[in-house]
Structures are given as C-alpha cells and as structure tokens.
Amino acid sequence: MNLNTINLVHKLKPLALLLLFMSSSFFFSQSKISIEGFVYDIYDYPVPYSSIGISKKNIGASSTEDGSFSFSVSKKELMDTLKVSSIGYETYKISVQDFIKLKDKKIILKDKITELKEISIQSSKTIVKNALKNLKANTLNSKHILGMLYRRWSVEDKICRFFIEQYIDVVDRGPSSNIYGFKIRHNRTSSDYRFVKNLQNKHSLQYMEWNNPLRKGILLGAYKWKKIKDTNYDDDDIVVIKGSEKNGDFITLYIGLNTAKIYRLEMFKTHKEGRSMDAIYVYKNNNQNKLYLSYHKREYTFQVKTPEHIKRIMIQTGKKPKPFVPVAYRHEVFVLNLDDNSKTTKSKGDEYNQRDMSLYKLDYDQNFWNNLSLPPETKFYQKNREELEGLFDVPIEIQFKYSNSN
After folding, report:
1. Cβ–Cβ under 8 Å, residues 277 and 269
2. How confident is the model at residue 356 (pLDDT cuts 50, 70, 90)?
3. Greatest alpha-carbon span in the chain
4. Which CA distances in Å does 72 have to 43, 134, 286?
5. Are residues 337 and 363 in the same domain?
6. Structure confidence at residue 42 (pLDDT)
7. Quick one: pLDDT at residue 117?
8. Which residue of 68, 90, 130, 363 has the lowest C-beta tally within 10 Å?
9. Which tens digit of pLDDT belongs to each residue from 128-156?
10. CA 184 to CA 148: how far, in whole Å?
11. DSSP labels for 214-283?
C-alpha cells in the first residue's frame, strides 16, 4: 500500500465511521415499534389504569386517566397477542400486527356485569384477611428488577416549583417483602424555583415502600370493613372493600374473590400537624400470573416554618409574614420494564442510601430520554408541568437543557 492510498484511507475513516453510526442508528430505530392508543368504554369515556400488553413476555403499560397508553415492541412481537384488561370490563385481545394496522387506535371495552349474592361470599373482614394471608403466594416474590420511571414534584405555597425525574432499576421481591436496593440509571431536573427547599432524609422510593400498607402490614381491627361494590378483572370476580377509621382515614382494596389477589389499593391517611397522604397502587399479572407493581401515584401534604429570609422579603413588600408555608410532594411512578430472569437478578442492588433523591448527581443523557418510550402525559403530570412552566413561562424541555450537567 503506497502513501497516497494510506492517506485516502485515513480521510475516508471518519466518513466510514459516520456511515456505520448512521446505519446502526437506523437499524436500532427500526427495531423499536411504538404501540400507542386509547382505551374507552362503550359510552366513550376513557378507562384509566387498564393493563395493556403482551402478558407472556412481560411487555406493556398502564393507561392514564384519559385512557391513553404507549410502549414499544420489536418485530419479534408482531404476531403476539395484545391483551387489554381493566377492572369491570371484558378482556380485549388483538394481535400486535392487526392493532398496528388499525387506523383508529381506539380500543373499546365492554362492561362486564357482576352481581355476587351476599350469601355466596364471606364477610368483608374475612376476605381482606384471606387476601393478606395469600399476598406472598399471589405476588411475584422471587427477586426481580423493576425498570421504574420515578417522578417527583416539589410544591410550595400550593404551586409546583421543582421537578425531578429518574429512571431506576429497583431490586424487589414484591409487597410481601422489602425492596433490596436500587440503582439510579438516569436523572434530570427542572429549574429550581423553590424558596424553602425542604429535603427528605430518604429517597422517595423508600417512602413509597414505607407508606404501602401491604408492605407495612394492615391492622385489621383498626378498620371497619364494608363491601362497596362487585366487579371483575379478566376471569376473576372482584370485591371492592373499604376499610374506614373513625378519623376519616381509609384503605380500599380490589380483591379477587376466587384468587384472593389484591389488584389495586387506594388510601387516604392523616397525620399530626395537618399532614396527609392520598395514594394509589396498581398491580398487574406477569407471564406466570403473579402480580407486580404497575403504577403508583401519591401526594403528601404538610407545612414547614417560613424561612427568615422569606419573612424579611414579605415585610419589605408590605406583607404580613406567614408562620408556616404549605408544602407538598407529588409522586408518579410507572414501571416500564420487568426483569424476572433469575440469572440476571442475582445482585441485591448496590444502593440503599438515606438521602433525598435530588442529591444524586448524574450526567444528563439527553439521548436516553429521547429514546425512552415515555408514557403519555397524565392529567396529574400536565397539572404539575403547567404550574412549573407558568412561574416564568419556560417550557420544561428548555429547563431540562439548562439545568442538568453534561
């Protein structure tokens, strides 16, 4: 090879590398097929918290409050069956390939009427007791990794002023156990408009675990249990039972009458000094018919003492200082991936640190967020985003761009 040929090769190498990168990027994008649509009932109302996916491969998502859903598949899943299930409706099935061909990506679920005779079921308290007794057997209790999208909004004086979003690998053994550990893979934040900047002494993930009554244990005698309605989920008759306390706190459980599975939990809890929490936990079946967490939402409200510098500012502007500032944390969690392969879940997770989630510093990988199959924006998400953007009229994407390290 002569000198001119060598020089030509060196000149062409960057071009070849660029073409190789473009080619690999093209095939990577082609390998991901977006599955997007809406779930409605026959009266044209959206069906929230539906389970949509390919059950045998643990691929799928949950619908938002407006019935929308989004996730990705590969060409290998084109011939698989897309299954849509929701409490109170008949299960809908269609091949992935046929769904993609639909012009109108709108799935209509039919009501499934369930009327259980009172004499045919046990007392409400007994049903709850049986469900808790079978919690471990009915949930995915072997070690698994949840690919979790965790979102938290910091609210001060009833306005959202800071947003943090993390993609986390969570090593879990289901609600009958504790989280083993976690690894934060990606992180991004909005601009920080807080003036109190209250920090939690643990990662919010750990509060999600701690506040879940299924993990803490439910004291049956502390509640007055009452069946409030009958419904169904797939082939399981569902009894919806509400446990109420004298102070107004409650837990509502959606329990399979035949399986004793707890598919959904809603709760409201008050604490001292005006603290309260409103939360929901939604579970769905994996390919072995074991339940695992699919979606979670909660809002924790409280108040903190007004910082001295804020009091001074209020005095200077002719306002009377408030002794306390109303504060809240709003959380939304989507489980985007499940890895229950025992060969890849041997690690216990390399973190379980006690610090606020905003104190974890990672480089901002915009390419990751651009390629992540993000769930559709819920009304909950939109409300918080609009409050945050409205402070200084700065779109959230611009805030991501300038508020994160590279």
Report:
1. yes
2. very high
3. 94
4. 28, 33, 17
5. yes
6. 93
7. 56
8. 363
9. 999 999 999 999 999 999 999 999 999 99
10. 9
11. HHH---GGGSEEEEEEEEEETTEEEEEEEEE-TTS-EEEEEEETTT--EEEEEEEEE-GGG-EEEEEEEE
Torsions phi, psi of 113, nearest 5? -75, 130
Tell me, yes or no, whether 13 lies in a domain: no
Q: How far separated are the first and last CA of the chain, in Å rounded?
A: 42
pLDDT of residue 345: 61
> What does the pLDDT read at residue 369?
95
- Both 210 and 325 in one domain: the answer is yes
Q: Across the chain, what does the average pLDDT equal?
A: 86
pLDDT recorded at residue 26: 36
Whichever domain contains 85, its CATH number is: 2.60.40.1120
What per-residue confidence (pLDDT) applies to 114? 67
- Residue 324 is predicted with a pLDDT of 83
3-state secondary structure at position 212: coil
Q: What b/e sequence results for 255-293 when a residue is b if at least 16 CB atoms lie within 10 Å of its CB, and e otherwise? A: bbbebbbbbbbbbebeeeeeeebebebbbbbbeeebbbb
* Residues 84 and 202 placed together within one structural domain of the fold: no
Name residue 264's amino acid. Answer: R
Entry field: residues in the chain: 406
Tokens describing residue 288 = 């072995």
Same domain, 96 and 134: no
Q: Residue 35 pLDDT > 70, yes or no? A: yes
Host domain of residue 103 = 33-109
Q: Please enumerate in sequence order all residues whose Cβ is within 8 A of that of 93, keeping only pairs 6 or more positions apart, or say none.
A: 81, 82, 83, 84
Summarize the confidence of residues 54-66 as an average pLDDT: 89
Using one digit for the tens of pLDDT, what is the confidence trace for 194-218? 988 888 889 999 999 999 999 989 9
In our burial notation (b when 16+ CB lie closer than 10 A, e otherwise), range 300-337 reads bbbbeebeeebbeeeeeeeeeeeeebebbbbbbbbbbe
Q: For residue 177, count other CB atoms closer than 10 A to its CB.
A: 15
Contact at 8 Å (CB) between 63 and 89? no
- Same domain? For 57 and 150 the reply is no
The two structure tokens encoding residue 157: 């004086």
